[in-house]
Each structure stands twice: as structure tokens, then as C-alpha cells.
Amino acid sequence: MRTYHLQTLGTVDGIVHRDSEPRPEPGPRDIVVRVRAVSLNKRDLLILKGTYPLKAVPDVIPVSDGAGEVVAVGGEVTRFKVGDRVMGTYFPNWRDGRITAAQFDQPGASLSGMLAEYVRLDQEAAVRVPDHLTWEEAACLPCAGVTAWHALTGGEPLLPGQTVLTLGTGALSLFVVRFAKALGAEVIATTSSAAKADRLKALGADHVVNYVENPEWGAAVRELTGGRGADLVVETNGPETIEQSMRASALYSQIVLLITGSPRRSGIEISNAAYAASLATIRRVFVGSRTHFEAMNRAVSLHGIRPVIDRVFGLDEVHEAFRYYEGGTAFGKVVISMA
After folding, report:
1. CA atoms within 13 A on the CB side of 31
2. pLDDT for position 262
3. Three-state DSSP class for 218?
4. Is the pTM of the predicted complex or chain greater than 0.90?
5. What is the rounded CA–CA span in Å between residue 284 and residue 160?
6. How does pLDDT run across 31-53, given as a tens digit for each residue?
7. 6 φ, ψ (degrees, to nearest 5)
8. Does the pLDDT at position 303 exceed 80?
């Protein structure tokens, strides 16, 4: 079978192609999946550069997110059968509850990833693909989709009519817009361009604030909410934007912090004035469990939600896909089709 391996850190060229790897066979509780599509996430670039907190094992198969068809099952498998459409989970050992240090292993880092024609998964480390999704769409869900869902549903309940603020137009933020609307929330998004603002509104955002034209965009969010502020902020930038996120927040809001580092700032800083004016709870989220994934899939199916895909590359275009994603211009997910 064809596989890709992270042979050398630091450069996209360090990902090497092989076409003579043996196809995996299932253990008693394993399934073998013919991978049809994978999608890229920021963590894949961080692993490639050697800056991700969880270091990659030598020669690892990269990429965490993928979807495909079950082609073989072990003798003790009860959750799936040959022909089922499945997605791998981001944390194969995290089923439910709070994550523990023993559950941190991830595909594409400490475990073999999805960038191969066939992969072997424990039956507990996969979930079913919603029927209406294509392979490419399904491959977008395991990291960005689950993180967005967990951010919205993992803390105090988000009630219909409350306001959610999401930042930028990364794939995760686009999922937040779709999921928040499905949950009955009013959505405010930030962006840097009128063209992106139009696309955010087409996805369901009720209001869009241009943070280039409004550097103090926290005040703009408060104005849009009649001075009250956002009930939940999905904070995807951390050090660069946390001050304005705090100023945009309602008195008893939730700020869900997804990223804690940046090239320019090494830590989170909030002014005394912003912090003293709020009783917000700051909550850290790191993707989610299989239970989060399955709950999200029910919502995706019920509302017919489809991920936003910017561009699809072929299996012979892996390096091009990584370089395009690294460029940071994508509106939505970058996908590699394996079909």
C-alpha cells in the first residue's frame, strides 16, 4: 500500500512517500480502514516543525484526521462491520469523561496517523460517518469539528438566544458559527475583510466585526449586544486577542481558550481594568472525547451540517497540500483525497 512518513522534521520535504508498505491486518478487536480522505490541521504543521508539545515518534505516518471504509474486522469486533463508513478519533484512548495523562496519545504524533491507503484502528477509536457527508467532508470533523462542539457544549449550557463570539475564519471558527446557530445562539464573528464577512454571514453569522477597521473590537461587540457582551467567546488566538475577548464578554460569560502561544507573545496577559470588569470563566479545551464526537455527529446529521472545504488535493499532491495550508489563506479545510 501507499503511505507517507514524517522522516525529517522542519520541512514539508521531510514527508516521504513509500509504496511498498504491507497492508495491515486486524487484531481481535481491530478494524482495517481503506482511507478515502484526510484533512490538515494546525497541529500537523506544528508536529512537522517539531514545536508541538507531543513529539512525533520516528518515521510516523502523519495527520490525525481521516475517514474511510471498513474493509476487515477482527474476530471480537462488535461495533462495526465490513462496508461501514468511519472516522478515526483524535484521542483513540479517550472515550468519555475528563482526559487523563494516559490518554494523550494521538495519531500523527505518538501513534501512526491517517495518511496511508489503509490503517488499523481499535474498534473503540472510530465513529460512524453521518450519512449525508462525502468522504472529504467527513475527514474534516475529528479535530476542528469536535473542538468547536466541545467548546460550545462542554461548560455551562449554551441557551437559545445567548450570544457566541468567534474569532477569524479558520476552519474551527467556521464550525463554531454553524454549530452555535444550530444550538439557537446569536453569532458574532470577527474578520479582516469584507469578502470574508460576506461568507461568514452566508454561513449564519448574525453580525461580523472587522478587527482591522475596529482594533478595539471588544467595544464593537458590546455595542452589538446592547452593552451586555457575548455570553460565550471561542478564543482561538490566545495572547494576541485575549484582552479584547475579555472586554467583549458579558459579566458571567465563558471564554473558551483553545490556543495559548504565539510567535510574538509567550503568555496570556489581561489588563487589570478588563479583568476587574468581568466575572468571566476562562476554560481550556483540547479537542474532545469520543462521546463529544458522537454527540456532534448527531447534531451534524439532524441539521444537515456540512464542513466548509477550501480546496481538495490528490494523493500525489501531499506536499502541495501542506504548503498551501501552511500559507494561511484557506477559508475552511484543506483536504487530501485518497480515493
Report:
1. 27
2. 53
3. helix
4. yes
5. 23
6. 999 999 999 999 999 999 999 99
7. -85, 95
8. yes
User: What is the spatial distance between Cα 175 and Cα 195, in angstroms, rounded to a whole number?
Assistant: 18
Q: Which of 301, 292, 299, 296 shows the shortest CA–CA distance to 95?
A: 292
Q: Read off the amino acid at residue 132.
A: H
Side-chain half-sphere of 86: how many Cα atoms within 13 Å? 31
Q: Would you kindly state where each structural domain of the chain is located, as residue ranges? A: 3-145+288-337, 155-284
Q: Which residue has the cell 467548546?
A: 151
What fold characterizes domain 155-284? Answer: Rossmann fold (3.40.50)
What mean pLDDT is predicted for residues 134-142?
Answer: 98
Banded model confidence at residue 285, pLDDT cuts 50, 70, 90: very high
Question: Where do the H-state alpha helices sit in the chain?
Answer: 42-49, 135-138, 146-153, 171-182, 194-203, 217-224, 242-248, 272-276, 290-303, 318-326
What are the φ/ψ torsions at residue 132 (nearest 5 degrees)?
-85, -5
What does the mean pLDDT of the chain come to?
Answer: 95
CA contacts within 13 A on the Cβ side of 101: 0
**Buried residues in 278-299 as b, exposed as e (16+ CB within 10 A):** bebebbebebbbbebbebbbeb
Are the CB atoms for 85 and 91 separated by under 8 Å? no
CA distances from 254 to 67, 140, 157, 162 (A): 32, 26, 10, 12
Distance CA 179, CA 204 (A): 10
CATH topology assigned to domain 3-145+288-337: Quinone Oxidoreductase; Chain A, domain 1 (3.90.180)
Pairwise CA distance, residues 271 & 176, whole Å: 27
Residue 312 one-letter amino acid: V
Q: What is the dihedral of CA 77, 83, 86, 91, to 10 degrees?
A: 30
